[in-house]
Amino acid sequence: MAKTALVTGILGQDGPYLADLLIKKGYRVFGLIRRYSNPNFSNLDYVGVTNEIDYVEGDMNDEASLLNLIRTLHPDEVYNLAAQSFVKTSFDQAKLTTEVNSLGPLYLLNAIKFFSPTTKFYQASTSEMFGLQHTNGYQDEQTPFHPRSPYGVSKVYAYWMTVNYRESYGLFTANGILFNHESPIRGIQFVTRKITDGVAKIKLGLAKELRLGNLDAKRDWGFAGDYVEAMYLMLQQKNPDDYVIGTGESHSVREFVEAAFKSIGIADWKKYVVIDPQFKRPAEVPNLKAKADKAKRNLNWKPKVSFEELVEMMVKADLKRYGSK
Length: 325
Description:
Blueprint: E1 4-8, H1 14-24, E2 28-33, H2 42-47, E3 54-57, H3 63-73, E4 77-80, H4 87-92, H5 94-115, E5 120-126, H6 150-169, E6 173-178, E7 181-182, H7 191-203, E8 210-212, E9 218-219, E10 222-223, H8 224-234, E11 243-245, E12 251-252, H9 253-262, E13 273-275, H10 293-298, H11 307-324
Parallel strand pairs: 1-2, 1-4, 2-3, 4-5, 5-6, 6-11, 7-10, 8-13
Antiparallel strand pairs: 9-12
């Protein structure tokens, strides 16, 4: 009998890539969606798995719906990718961010504890939990958390609740502390996709400038398609554990901008970029860089797509989108 997996956040960025991976491995994939009047399946269409997923209704803010789903499905694996994941929005909508990102995972863990204790659970944690670091080095599984946004704070709660249910009830629960991972289906509100979309518009004569905030922030950027493989591998281990996932390279927003313009043959990118204070965060995270030695050693995982390849991939996809229009 085929394994079953419930994936929350199926309409986001990571959900489609994960669903594609699981389906290719013979899983039956259930995708959690809210009762939208008009769900947006464009990300699933891009990956090509829209019609291969069984969609189930539920809401991360509604514990009863999640309890009912787990009781009905008894999935072999649950991948909790659902989140209010835009850092800037979390400052304006701290309560909503907390309800979805903190209480949602708790509801799922309770459902598994009560109705399906053999189900393996993956929690999408984030490098934003590390936040302010007093070093220009790296972050690994031993690095203390110092979140700098309501988003980061909400994810810290979910992280420790995942650990607590593993230690208290013997559940198979794992945290994937994923550093920034991007793709052609990254949400347009995120700075990476905003850059590649803006560069594509400038190339095609649809825009004359690109407005950004802090160009000095540094992140460890990888490809989402590589990172979902790490999620899967975490739940295939004999023992549950928590893993940092990243490339080990740190690049500034400025470098991302430069690489994006370079991919379309523009060297003097500065004449197109305007710094706009409205895009700066109340509290910035200056530098994040992963040390993913544990994942490389235990999971035999490593990223395949380089920083330059990722940027070029995203720019080409946005050029194709506007070209098709």
